[in-house]
Design a protein that fits this description.
With 356 residues, the protein is α/β, with parallel strands linked by helices. The protein has twelve helices and ten strands. The chain has two domains: 1-150 and 338-356, no CATH class; 167-323, no CATH class. The protein has a ten-stranded mixed β-sheet, sandwiched between helices.
Length: 356
């Protein structure tokens, strides 16, 4: 899965270069959540086939706190092959990669591999990426990608074009589609319809009013200036709380931490940010095929959504002010479709984070 995600990322960076960006302005950070629980096959591929790490020098390149190793860091710049079969079988023909004679079939990328010593969960991995690395780089954009998600080659261009053309957009997401579609599997087929309806009914309607209730962690892009300050403080609040203070309310609330970040960006003081849906930014992701796995996932999502609704009601003053601002917003601020720009540019680097 890591190989597919990185090769798809390389194909997207190649398309960004055709639009005026440089690969030197993009850093790809791969965060592995815990050395002990990491997949042995994934680590083997990362070391032997990709050259992203060297197991023999783990102790020599580590960040330590009070004598204990916290994270191992490896950095490299290497070329990734852009293969024509990088996309899932169900990908539309228009998204297929076809190399013409003499066309570029590889892409150079800057990669940093964060190998955490202990498992801390997805939110902890996000904290390492955003507060540990992005805060030092001060990028213009931060993109989060789950390992196993495969964006089509035009995904990044579509997202960056919308963000560049609309300075009031604090975050955006595209259409997410299940990578494997088995018509004989009712669980997978139901999710395929649900993902489609979620994109073109829910997110499209929400985007008209300038607010996406949740930007999916599978693949979303944020404007770093919109995230800084109160949104990131609210997003990582659970990580800074002592275990004794984590009540059942907060434990359920942070089952859907992406909703907290989206709400906090929109409610940020002194700036009217909006969130948008970009249907052209298509990506394929893995979904549960077993019913018991799906039930566990949806129980987590449903609990998180319910307690986030309670969180909105507890902050009713912010919610009402936010609703009023969205109601009187001009059409230009409602994330309408803009002409595609012919040239993209960056004031700072783009920061991509992949989470294993």
């Amino acid at each position: 899965m890591l190989t597919s995600t990185l090769r798809a990322t390389a194909a997207n960076i190649a398309n960004l270069e055709r639009k005026g960006w440089s690969w030197k302005n993009v850093l790809v950070l791969v965060v592995v959540d815990g050395l002990e629980k990491a997949s042995a096959s994934m680590l083997k591929v990362a070391e032997e086939k990709m050259g992203l790490m060297h197991s023999g020098v783990l102790q020599g390149r580590s960040l330590q706190v009070q004598g204990s190793t916290v994270v191992h860091l490896f950095e490299s710049t290497r070329d990734f092959d852009i293969k024509e079969d990088v996309l899932p079988t169900r990908a539309n023909r228009k998204h297929r990669i076809k190399h013409a004679n003499g066309a570029k079939s590889s892409q150079r990328m800057q990669i940093a591999l964060f190998l955490k010593a202990r498992n801390g969960g997805k939110l902890n991995s996000h904290m390492w990426g955003m507060l540990g690395v992005a805060r030092m780089l001060n990028p213009k954009y931060v993109m989060t990608i789950d390992v196993g998600t495969v964006p089509v080659p035009s995904n990044f261009v579509a997202l960056m074009t919308r963000m560049e053309n609309s300075p009031d957009i604090g975050g955006a997401a595209g259409e997410i589609v299940p990578a494997m579609y088995n018509r004989c599997n009712g669980t997978a087929a139901a999710q395929d319809f649900e993902y489609w309806s979620s994109s073109y009914l829910d997110k499209a309607t929400e985007a008209f009013f300038g607010y996406i209730s949740v930007l999916p962690g599978a693949l979303s892009v944020y404007r770093w200036s919109a995230m800084c300050g109160q949104p990131l403080a609210a997003y990582f609040k659970l990580e800074s709380m002592p275990a004794a203070q984590i009540t059942p309310f907060y434990a359920n609330l942070y089952l859907a931490e992406d909703r907290i970040l989206a709400f906090s960006i929109l409610a940020k003081k002194d700036r009217a940010w909006f969130l948008d849906f970009v249907p052209d930014a298509l990506a394929y992701t893995d979904v549960p095929e077993a019913l018991d796995t799906l039930v566990k996932q949806r129980r987590r999502w449903t609990n998180g959504a319910l307690f986030n609704l309670i969180y909105y009601l507890m902050n009713v003053d912010v919610s009402l002010n936010l609703a009023l601002r969205l109601a009187v917003a001009t059409p230009a601020a409602l994330a309408v479709t803009f002409p595609v720009c012919s040239q993209l540019w960056a004031e700072g680097p783009v920061f991509l984070t992949c989470y294993v």
